[in-house]
Amino acid sequence: MRPSGRAPDEMRPITIETGFTKHAEGSCLISCGDTRVLCTASVEERIPPWLRGKGEGWVTGEYSMLPRATHTRGSREAARGKQSGRTQEIQRLIGRSLRAVVDLKKLGERQITLDCDVIQADGGTRTASISGAWVALRLAVNSLMASGDIKQDPIEKQVAAISCGIYQGTPVLDLDYAEDSNADADANFVLIEGGQIAEVQATAEGATYDEEGLLRLLRLAKIGCDGIFAAQLDAVK
Amino acid sequence: MRPSGRAPDEMRPITIETGFTKHAEGSCLISCGDTRVLCTASVEERIPPWLRGKGEGWVTGEYSMLPRATHTRGSREAARGKQSGRTQEIQRLIGRSLRAVVDLKKLGERQITLDCDVIQADGGTRTASISGAWVALRLAVNSLMASGDIKQDPIEKQVAAISCGIYQGTPVLDLDYAEDSNADADANFVLIEGGQIAEVQATAEGATYDEEGLLRLLRLAKIGCDGIFAAQLDAVK
Amino acid sequence: MRPSGRAPDEMRPITIETGFTKHAEGSCLISCGDTRVLCTASVEERIPPWLRGKGEGWVTGEYSMLPRATHTRGSREAARGKQSGRTQEIQRLIGRSLRAVVDLKKLGERQITLDCDVIQADGGTRTASISGAWVALRLAVNSLMASGDIKQDPIEKQVAAISCGIYQGTPVLDLDYAEDSNADADANFVLIEGGQIAEVQATAEGATYDEEGLLRLLRLAKIGCDGIFAAQLDAVK
Amino acid sequence: MRPSGRAPDEMRPITIETGFTKHAEGSCLISCGDTRVLCTASVEERIPPWLRGKGEGWVTGEYSMLPRATHTRGSREAARGKQSGRTQEIQRLIGRSLRAVVDLKKLGERQITLDCDVIQADGGTRTASISGAWVALRLAVNSLMASGDIKQDPIEKQVAAISCGIYQGTPVLDLDYAEDSNADADANFVLIEGGQIAEVQATAEGATYDEEGLLRLLRLAKIGCDGIFAAQLDAVK
Amino acid sequence: MRPSGRAPDEMRPITIETGFTKHAEGSCLISCGDTRVLCTASVEERIPPWLRGKGEGWVTGEYSMLPRATHTRGSREAARGKQSGRTQEIQRLIGRSLRAVVDLKKLGERQITLDCDVIQADGGTRTASISGAWVALRLAVNSLMASGDIKQDPIEKQVAAISCGIYQGTPVLDLDYAEDSNADADANFVLIEGGQIAEVQATAEGATYDEEGLLRLLRLAKIGCDGIFAAQLDAVK
Amino acid sequence: MRPSGRAPDEMRPITIETGFTKHAEGSCLISCGDTRVLCTASVEERIPPWLRGKGEGWVTGEYSMLPRATHTRGSREAARGKQSGRTQEIQRLIGRSLRAVVDLKKLGERQITLDCDVIQADGGTRTASISGAWVALRLAVNSLMASGDIKQDPIEKQVAAISCGIYQGTPVLDLDYAEDSNADADANFVLIEGGQIAEVQATAEGATYDEEGLLRLLRLAKIGCDGIFAAQLDAVK
Questions:
Q1: Where's the Exoribonuclease phosphorolytic domain (chains A, B, C, D, E, F) (predicted)?
Q2: Contact yes or no for D42 and F83 at CB 8 A
């Protein structure tokens, strides 16, 4: 029934290739089916002005799609001279999601920027970005701990994200583009290992849903994130 | 226990003053406690380029805070030369929320823009904007129907929004600024009359929450929106 | 003969509602007929870089129209990404006009920003902004004096503004939109209590005028400003 | 008493060199003392969108200072990415002033842009721009009439502009930079041959002035503009 | 003597992986040592406005570096709101270089955009972009010919580019970052199969060079481009 | 055979009028045939942030065309809100070219900005800018040495620039607009007195050229620059 033939609770295959670029303190290329995002973590020994003197660090995210990551070419945001509302919304989500699992005091007065650049898009680019960004962050923090720059691990938990939706009346896990563009409702869940919720962004496009519908999507998301948590651990070990 | 002394499921008083400005096809000043938003609906006989020839209309939202709506003056977005990510995120939310209850075919080839300008802010400006925008939209559509420009009512339902959060461990309804800036978790719900969900945007700032926590917030939101639905009906009758 | 039926030297009714918003150090909603402008005065304990070390303060103005303040909706300057030439011209005029009656040394090293946001427009928005900004400024300075932050009153006089024009050959006072859009000549006068001139901006749109015509407009403006001075005093006492 | 030793009603020498650049339909370099402005008139067979179908043309002005026209180098507006409020205000003034003497119907459906680029500044750049722009416009229209593109002369009168001010208590004509930066009051007059007023922009910087003061400045301006009208005629004959 | 131990006329290993992304009509990841650029060719059935009605197509280039392609993170151009002069200069070079080998008439009224996104930088990103862009273009045109949309091959020749420079007094081929940042002189050559020159951009940073020096660099470039031509052919066959 | 009737190795007449504006520390109007560029050198006692504490100065260039310097009016970059890629490319070239002959240590911690504003364009504006900028720089440095602010002359050599191209199969020197817009190949050479090369930017527009062609253009450029070197010396003595 799903265009891909997947079962409703079946995710696309996930692969995480670490060390994809050599300059970043942490990097990976995460693939969720045909969606591929390059995630890098850059450590800088500076903090935003409003944090000065608080003895804390900062974790932030940036997001972009390459112009031809999509079916038809999109114009380059740098050429248009501004980032779209969608891009800014996703960047803010990435930052909040990662900060939900980091103790900024333990990070010390430094900033880690998680750049998520979509190489190829097939639905779920923002959730793949979050899941991959955690891996890049983990690798960058490992290196800061190995060098002695950080004494105590500031990363408290794993965080991962997945989209779910109602496709032709059925709740399904991990929407690809064919589903995403036709789904009745669409929800992105950012979950923390152990079952806690960091973020829910649920939108009814065509049809609305009720409390029961929201719960069914949340349960699918838990199944999905458990799979991602395993892939993350496997990648960083 | 709440700074305002309200019970956990007690909303702030809502008033909706219709016809606040004379030029707009529909307008109201909605007050939720000390949060006051001027909502206007402007009808234009044109549609976005990508809708041409489809026989449909469009409903969109814009949002802004006056510079001194807040405790300290914020710089004017027009002077900075761009809208913040937060503003764009809220504008997109307002548009989606209202479109969730409008049959764009019945609207015909015209666009209605819902401008939500925050005169005074005390928490919950985006949710007040959505609740007030519905009133402005209802008034504008009434006038289009009265003039015969629209034959069948394109507004299918009421839509309203409210924020809930976990404040000092307790789920509470309708956060004001004092609560919002200290809440452990914060969720905005956009609900449709009859109990359906249009949007959920839930964020764990300090602590995360689990499935049960999300449900408790959703149930508070239903209580709140029922009150808003009544105030909306009262305003437009 | 005037569209409103007013006598040539008859102003529209003026009302000034102080304390319209609660966060600003001074605020009022000024109505000149159907033109309504929200004026707020924000005190900040900082000064522009080029004033540092001079022991002086600064008074500046900002101006904006809400998108649907006018008959047809105008696009939002924040969305267009820049302020129009008209907006900047008016902002500069507001700042100069208020500084004409303030002793910046007595103000001390602080800045007061006068935000004039047009809620509803029916001609004369720039002059109403100046007249209302004086009230907001007066209230903010009163509060600085009450708290002892300022010892000597830096406001030396009242300042007010009004437009005059030649409508169908007759000099008239306080143009509304119906007159303004058809006037042969249009002049904005910023006057100081006691009859001094702070600014004249006179433009011949259709027909030009001579020295005698300019004087007749100036005399009308004096009549008008006397009325505004009284309304200002009444509002702040 | 004046820094330059001029009498109060004495203008600086004016020279107008026509044909300063070869591509423009009309051009001149106007020098008012050490203030030098290159004015070009460019004819384009297109009109702004809002004039289409009205059988009228348009006259507009643009203004800029070269970065080192002034005592200290100013940053380039093209590099900063926006035109200052001052620049926009002056551009609007140039356009209005020239349109005051042009019959746009006789101009036909074409646009003439008057570019005023300040090569060297020593006070009075905006008024020199207007006086020079009239010469460039006259030359461009002459050429359109010679070619038969225009049948009836659309230029109805001469227009010129001059600044006056109160310097150390004395009303003086044609402020140079040394006076302008220390004047108590400063007024720009745009006058039309025969004594009519097109624009007055009078600002009290230090001290205010009364009706009598305004009249004295206006009378000085008439003396000055009579000299400019003669120089314009001499340049274009 | 070279930091990498390469001989003066020895290039870094080149690999070209075609089909790196699935949506683009042509794509490859070109690696020149540690410099890696993703090149995609996007075919659009539209042309720039100034080409309409001429029966010709257009080939253009865009270029960007991912923020962490470099040793230290660079800010994102989309976030800064404009493209740097360096980016624009490179984009123009890419477009001119590719157009030098394309018959735009045979391409027909369509545009091909060559996006060159630098994944990892180690010197020579602009030359690698050009060499890779030819491969992406070749693949896209092959597909247009296979579908019958183009009858005659519009690509007349191969084009490739390489940098040369004078490093510690010795002319060397294919500068990497360690050399590039310390070279006395630096030249980028865009060559066409058969030995013709499409572009030379030679800059003396520290020391200047004479005619003989320029010729020696050109001869090294020919050696380098012959190697790239072979790699290109191998990739597209 | 050339549209101007010049011999292939014949330059247009060059004139350099120094002291064209009075405020700049150095200035000249350079004319190469009908191409006229105003070059000013502005000395500022500040340096870019990245040079602080190095005991060095900086030399940079800015470039602009007046809107009607060209056959048809071009829009003003300040009004468009950004500088074109072409402008930025030329600015970078001017800066690099002048820095090639300046010892930045001897300049001391100050910045000299070379503003090149094209008054009238007829081909070769960027090369005329470089040749004129050297004169303005020389005059400004002379004045700094005369005042004792600089002890040792930081200008080591003369630098000049000229364009050459292949026009109807013949290599020609100093392209004017009529040739430039029809040339098969076009090269800009920046040469240093004594025969060294500072920059080569050679582009094949229609046809490509080989090593021999490049050499022939370089030799023409040497002839041309020798003439400019003489004119520069003559202007500054």
A1: 10-140, 158-222
A2: no
Number of A to E CB contacts under 8 A, please give it.
93
The tokens for A93 are: 């989500």
**Per-residue confidence at A184, pLDDT binned at 50, 70, 90?**
confident
Q: How many domains does chain D have?
A: 1
Q: Mark yes or no for CB contact E38/A66 under 8 Å.
A: yes
Comparing CB atoms, the residue among B38, B81, B87 nearest residue C82 is B81
Alpha helices per DSSP H over chain C: 77-80, 85-99, 104-107, 125-146, 177-180, 211-236
On the 0-12 / 13-18 / 19+ scale of CB atoms within 10 A, C151 is exposed
How far lies E49's CA from each of A133, E106, F88, in Å? 41, 19, 24
Instruction: Check if F104 contacts E (Cβ < 8 Å).
Output: no
Question: What is the distance between the alpha carbons of residues E62 and E115, in angstroms, rounded to a whole number?
Answer: 5
Q: Across all residues in chain A, what is the average pLDDT?
A: 94
CB within 8 Å: A83 and E87: no
D192 within 8 A of D214, measured Cβ to Cβ: no
Per-residue pLDDT of chain D (237 residues; tens, 9 = 90+): 899 999 999 999 999 999 999 999 999 999 999 999 999 999 999 999 999 889 999 999 999 999 999 999 999 998 888 899 899 999 999 999 999 999 999 999 999 999 999 999 999 999 999 999 999 999 999 999 999 999 999 999 999 999 999 998 899 999 999 998 888 888 999 999 988 999 999 988 666 788 888 999 999 999 999 999 999 999 998
| Positions of chain C with pLDDT under 70 | 205-207
Give residue D206's pLDDT. Answer: 66
Residue C139 within a domain: yes
DSSP C209: B
Residues of chain E with pLDDT under 50: none
Asked if B218's CB is within 8 angstroms of A197's CB, the reply is no
Q: Which of B86, B200, B215 sits opposite A202 (nearest CB)?
A: B200
Q: Is the minimum CB–CB distance between C76 and chain B shorter than 8 Å?
A: yes
Do B96 and A203 make contact, defined as CB atoms within 8 angstroms?
yes
The beta strands (E) that lie in chain A are given as 14-18, 26-32, 35-44, 58-65, 111-120, 159-167, 170-173, 185-192, 196-204
Assign A205 a pLDDT band (cuts: 50, 70, 90).
Answer: low
SS3 A106: helix
The verdict on residue E5 lying in a domain is: no
Q: How many of the other CB atoms lie within 10 Å of CB of B80?
A: 12
Using CA atoms, how far apart are residues D155 and D24, in angstroms rounded to an integer?
Answer: 18
Beta strands in C19-102 (DSSP E): 26-32, 35-44, 58-65
CA distance B161 to F129: 62
**D124: domain CATH number?**
3.30.230.70
Question: Is residue A5 one of the residues assigned to a domain?
Answer: no
CA angle centred on B203, ends B201 and B204, rounded to 5°? 160
Is A89's CB within 8 Å of B92's CB?
Answer: yes
Which residue in A200, E236, A94 sits closest to B187, CA to CA?
A200
Q: Which of D60, D77, D88 to mutate to test the interface with C (most CBs of C within 10 A)?
A: D88
Cβ contacts of E202 on chain F, cutoff 8 Å: 197, 199-201
The annotated binding site of F for phosphate is made up of 86, 124-126
Please give the C-alpha separations between residue D22 and each of B146, D42, F70, in angstroms, as whole numbers.
63, 11, 9
Domain residues for the domain of F116 are 14-236
Q: What ipTM was reported for this prediction?
A: 0.88
d(Cα A214, Cα E214) in Å, to the nearest integer?
69
* Residue position matching structure tokens 């208590």: D169
Is D38 within a domain?
A: yes
Q: Examine the pLDDT at B207 and tell me if it is beyond 80.
A: no
* Mean pLDDT taken over chain E: 94
Q: How far is A5 from chain B (nearest CA, A)?
A: 28
